[in-house]
């Protein structure tokens, strides 16, 4: 099995929103912000190549939304979904499965693009696109808070092409890949866990978006049910300590992966790695 990080570019978000009720004097020691209080965030996806299947987890922001929308979110960085896949030696048609943690714009925007005739086209047209039933329902009929972060053209063409696969509950959805359904960030948010020969890797998405969010009360203001987020995080981190799970961060610009330890102040970092360092370490290379 091969695990490859797929960088798709960065965007910026308000640090106050990212760290919720935590005061800036505390979070700015752990994650930098610019003079406008914006923090830079990666959109780091993960390719799991099992040999038989080529599975992409999340697809970044894509390029469909208006220049005005993207300017609010200050897209930056050189990386793009297609370039990163090409450098890793993959074509979009190689991808057999796309797992979407949820359908907020920065997680699924790369699934669809507009061609030269301005027609929407599915980027990974050989792939099943896995979304939880609860998240799909939330996307189709959004509440007034999340409505602004869902875009119909990100997923409608997938549905129309018959490429949507709906997940009802926690399951091994294919060999080596388990998904857990959590609801704190958004209804039906999926947490994918890869059972690799080197050990377990969890794709944290917005459950623990950046390294400092490992601390239990450090919950983003984007979460729709923050108390639920804390309970879910606590359960997951307890298991992560017991099983030595490697946490893969989608949004942390500065840290790719970490293992977790329980210290005197609660859950914290055990070791930091790049994904390659973690894989090599555990395969004895
Ligand atoms: Zn989100």
TrEMBL record:
Residues 42-245 form the Metallo-beta-lactamase domain. CDD domains: metallo-hydrolase-like_MBL-fold. GO terms for molecular function: hydrolase activity; metal ion binding. InterPro entries: MBL_superfamily_lactonases, Metallo-B-lactamas, RibonucZ/Hydroxyglut_hydro. It comes from the Bacteria. Keywords: Hydrolase, Metal-binding, Zinc. The keyword Hydrolase applies. Pfam families: Lactamase_B (PF00753). Belongs to the metallo-beta-lactamase superfamily. This is MBL fold metallo-hydrolase. It comes from Carboxylicivirga sediminis. The lineage of its organism: Bacteria, Pseudomonadati, Bacteroidota, Bacteroidia, Marinilabiliales.
């Amino acid at each position: 099995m091969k695990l490859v990080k797929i960088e798709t570019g960065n965007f910026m978000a308000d640090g106050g929103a990212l760290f919720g009720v935590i005061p800036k004097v505390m979070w700015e020691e752990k994650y930098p912000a610019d003079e406008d209080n914006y923090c830079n965030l990666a959109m780091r996806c993960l390719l799991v190549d099992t040999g038989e299947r080529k599975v992409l987890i999340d697809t970044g922001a894509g390029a469909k939304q208006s220049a005005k929308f993207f300017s609010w979110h200050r897209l930056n960085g050189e990386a793009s979904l297609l370039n990163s896949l090409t450098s890793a030696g993959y074509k979009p048609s190689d991808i057999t499965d796309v797992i979407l943690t949820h359908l907020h714009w920065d997680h699924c925007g790369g699934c669809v693009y507009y061609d030269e005739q301005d027609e929407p086209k599915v980027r990974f047209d050989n792939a099943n696109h896995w979304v939880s039933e609860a998240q799909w329902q939330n996307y189709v009929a959004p509440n007034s808070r999340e409505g602004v972060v869902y875009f119909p053209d990100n997923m409608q063409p997938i549905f129309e092409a018959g490429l949507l696969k709906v997940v009802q509950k926690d399951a091994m959805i294919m060999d080596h890949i388990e998904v857990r359904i959590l609801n704190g960030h958004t209804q039906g948010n999926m947490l994918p866990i890869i059972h690799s020969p080197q050990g377990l890797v969890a794709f944290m998405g917005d459950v623990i978006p950046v390294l400092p969010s490992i601390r239990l009360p450090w919950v983003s203001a984007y979460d729709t049910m923050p108390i639920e987020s804390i309970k879910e995080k606590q359960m997951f981190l307890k298991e992560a300590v017991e099983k030595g799970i490697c946490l893969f961060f989608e949004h942390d610009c500065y840290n790719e992966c970490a293992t977790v330890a329980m210290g005197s102040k609660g859950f914290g970092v055990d070791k930091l790695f790049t994904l390659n360092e973690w894989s090599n370490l555990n395969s004895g290379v």
